[in-house]
Amino acid sequence: MTKSSIARSKNWLRTYCRNRHLLLYGNVYSMSTVPERIFPERLQAARQLRKLSQSELAAKAGLQPSAVSHFETGRRAPSFDNLKALSTALEVTTDYLLGRVDDPQLQGEVADQLFRHAQKMSQQDLETLTSFAEMLARKRK
Questions:
Q1: What is the pLDDT along the chain (141 residues), one digit of tens a residue?
Q2: What is the Cα–Cα distance from 126 to 132, expressed in whole angstroms?
Q3: Whose CA, among 8, 59, 99, 119, lies 20 to 30 Å from 83?
Q4: How far apart are the first and last CA of the chain?
Q5: Selection from 112, 57, 109 nearest residue 85 by Cα
Q6: How is domain 35-106 classified at the architecture level of CATH?
Q7: From the CB of residue 137, how many other CB atoms can be counted at a distance below 10 Å?
Q8: In the chain, what are the domain boundaries?
Q9: What pTM value is reported for the model?
């Protein structure tokens, strides 16, 4: 092989690797932005579920009404403290607002305590707890 053909091969290989990297990791990056699109939708849905205006939500969360508007339109993302304040005011989890779970109802201190305790239980204890919870849910209907 001549020096020029080796150089062409190296350039081709470099280009191929760069394009493959962009193809693989570019898709991962674009998928990681999904929560940025979900958050504004979830925030608005939770606010409407609680029948609050943007101003009422802002007052409950200790924010400016314009901040809630910016969050719902996606122009700004909330800080961690603002995210916690919004989830508390809306009585939903931060996981719901971020798109990690789909149920806005299970939230609050009781849900957090149940989750913390469940992490320390054996499989048999979890099955017993699940059966008990199902019994209580049927009783409520």
A1: 666 656 565 556 566 555 554 444 443 333 334 556 899 999 999 999 999 999 999 999 999 999 999 999 999 999 999 999 999 999 888 888 988 877 776 655 666 777 778 788 888 888 888 888 788 878 866
A2: 10
A3: 119
A4: 80
A5: 57
A6: Orthogonal Bundle (1.10)
A7: 9
A8: 1-32, 35-106, 111-140
A9: 0.55
